[in-house]
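Researcher: I'm preparing a figure for a lab meeting and need a structural model of a single chain. I don't have an experimental structure, so a prediction will have to do for now. The sequence is pasted below. Please return the structure as tokens so I can convert it later.
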Amino acid sequence: MYYSISKDSKYYVTVTDGIMDVSLMELPSKELADEVAFLLQLAWDEGNSWGRNEMRRQLDPEGFGKETAERLQKFKAMNEMDKKNHRDQIMKQYKTKQQQIRKQVSRWNK
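Model: Understood. Here is the structure written out token by token.
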């Protein structure tokens, strides 16, 4: 974390990591020290945010997480009749696929 301090009528921008405080620079006015500390902290936060978003893009380049969340939201918004119709449609597709697999296996066994 970046912050400004004043000591003996001198103004410093300091960074801390929770264990150590390190003075980065001395500046001529408190306002300038405050502004520099604010901008450094802002840049740090933006870099952190960018890194988090970049990691998400690398782990899920196709965006399946977002697509899955949208589909779940759509399903939650359905009424009971629509949910039943959707479930019936999925079961029909599943049974059709199973029949195709059984036919293929029976052809292989001939």
